[in-house]
Amino acid sequence: WWHDRRAGCVRHVAAPKIKAVDTLAAGDVFHGAFAVGLAEAMPVEQALRFASAAAALKCLRFGGRLGAPNRAETLAMVAQTWPA
């Protein structure tokens, strides 16, 4: 959830539906991916989708940093979860 100042409303991006096996470092992965998205000038909604996909992928794998997905995997999850 976030307040979209331009639209003047509260908006929501639903997380991908997964069966998590390990949530260790999921928040770190989310925040890192969100920061990357914003640094690359993605619109907030796109950055949130990117971050949500990265965190979901992390939760499908065991391990902290070692379970973090790469960019290609994350972009594939974004395309699969939120088709254009």
Describe this structure in words.
The protein is mainly alpha-helical and 84 residues long. The chain has one domain. It is 49% helix and 7% strand. It is built from three helices and two strands, in the order ββααα. It has a two-stranded antiparallel ribbon. β1 and β2 form a beta hairpin. The mean pLDDT is 96.
Overview features:
84 residues, mainly alpha, two-stranded antiparallel ribbon
Short account of what is shown:
This protein is mainly α. The chain has three helices and two strands, in the order E-E-H-H-H.
Topology summary:
Blueprint: E1 2-4, E2 9-11, H1 26-39, H2 44-59, H3 71-81
Antiparallel strand pairs: 1-2
- Give the count of structural domains: 1
SS-based class:
mainly alpha
Strand order of the largest sheet: 1-2
**What's the tally of helices?**
3
Report the sheet-strand fraction.
Answer: 5-15%
- The stretches of 5 or more residues where confidence is low (pLDDT under 50) are none
Helix content: 40-55%
Main sheet overview: 2 strands, antiparallel
C-alpha Rg (nearest Å): 13 Å
Using the alpha-carbon principal axes, give the shape: globular
Question: Mean of residue pLDDT?
Answer: 96
Number of strands: 2
Helix and strand pattern: EEHHH
Separation, N- and C-terminal Cα atoms = 21 Å
